[in-house]
């Protein structure tokens, strides 16, 4: 998808002037624009996008889906514009983000739990989120899979971190998730290159263990009924 894909449609439908937020690593299925107040994501029409819309409407995190426009070939999502810079940008500017590993751990856990809880809300409402019963009896966790530093921003004024992308997300068997969540957390904290403790291998392993153990206690078992 080229940088200015459907830009004229966005400006006409929402009566605004936008600039591209194009990133070289965006997959070809979307374009992103913003004005002073909102962010607009343009997708090619697909069942996956329709399913993502259901998720966004039930999501209770900082990112809010405010409006949706559809035509024969595309879907446009209008979001609130969370203020800040991507962690990727701040790291390239050699800026220090004053968040320690314990704070990052708690923020990460909060996002993981809200994404899973949104998956359950969607499961209760939409057939598209129904899954088969787990034959091992361990259940499922609805999981976001891309914790790279372009997907969250830091606001230097209010000193807060915000998750601004929720793709891709899907159900994951809990026994697989137990392994994956450790790698996800490690991937997440290594985006904050200024933190000296990242070089302490034993401490990082301890944190990975702690995150996995705490989330296992804090996320109740979810056993799906047959789809």
Features:
227 residues; alpha+beta; three-stranded antiparallel sheet; 10 strands
The pLDDT mean sits at 91
Write down the secondary-structure element order.
HEEEHEEEHHEEEEHH
Oligomerization state: single chain
Largest sheet: 5 strands, antiparallel
The low-pLDDT segments are none
Report how far the terminal alpha carbons are from each other. Answer: 35 Å
Total DSSP helices? 6
Approximately what portion of the residues adopt beta-strand conformation?
15-25%
The helicity comes to 25-40%
What class, by secondary structure content?
alpha+beta
What's the count of strands? 10
Strand order of the largest sheet: 1-2-3-5-4
Which shape, going by the Cα principal axes? flat
CA-atom Rg in angstroms: 19 Å
Set down the secondary structure blueprint.
Elements: H1 7-14, E1 19-20, E2 30-34, E3 38-44, H2 47-58, E4 65-70, E5 74-80, E6 85-86, H3 87-92, H4 101-125, E7 140-144, E8 152-155, E9 160-163, E10 169-173, H5 174-189, H6 201-218
Antiparallel strand pairs: 1-2, 2-3, 3-5, 4-5, 6-8, 7-10, 8-9
Helix pairs in contact: 2-4, 4-6, 5-6
Short description:
With 227 residues, the chain is of the alpha+beta class. The protein is built from six helices and ten strands; from the N terminus they run H-E-E-E-H-E-E-E-H-H-E-E-E-E-H-H. A five-stranded antiparallel beta sheet has the order 1-2-3-5-4, sandwiched between helices. Strands 6-8-9 form a three-stranded antiparallel beta sheet.
């Amino acid at each position: 998808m080229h940088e200015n894909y459907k830009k004229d449609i966005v400006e006409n439908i929402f009566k605004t002037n936008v600039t591209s937020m194009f990133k070289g690593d965006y997959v070809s299925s979307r374009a992103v624009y913003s004005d002073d107040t909102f962010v607009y994501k343009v997708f090619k029409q697909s069942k996956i996008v329709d399913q993502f819309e259901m998720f966004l409407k039930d999501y209770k995190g900082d990112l809010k889906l405010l409006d949706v426009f559809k035509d024969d070939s595309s879907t446009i999502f209008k979001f609130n514009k969370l203020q800040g810079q991507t962690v990727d940008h701040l790291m390239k500017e050699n800026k220090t983000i004053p968040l320690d590993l314990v704070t990052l751990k708690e923020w990460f856990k909060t996002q993981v739990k809200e994404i899973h809880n949104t998956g359950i809300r969607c499961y209760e409402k939409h057939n598209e989120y129904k899954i088969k019963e787990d034959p091992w009896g361990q259940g499922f966790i609805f999981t976001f899979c891309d914790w790279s530093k372009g997907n969250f921003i830091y606001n230097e004024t209010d000193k807060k971190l915000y998750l601004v992308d929720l793709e891709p997300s899907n159900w994951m068997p809990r026994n697989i998730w137990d392994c994956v969540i450790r790698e996800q957390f490690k991937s997440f904290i290594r985006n904050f290159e200024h933190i000296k403790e990242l070089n302490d291998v034993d401490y990082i392993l301890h944190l990975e263990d702690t995150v996995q153990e705490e989330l296992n206690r804090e996320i109740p078992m979810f056993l799906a009924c047959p789809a």
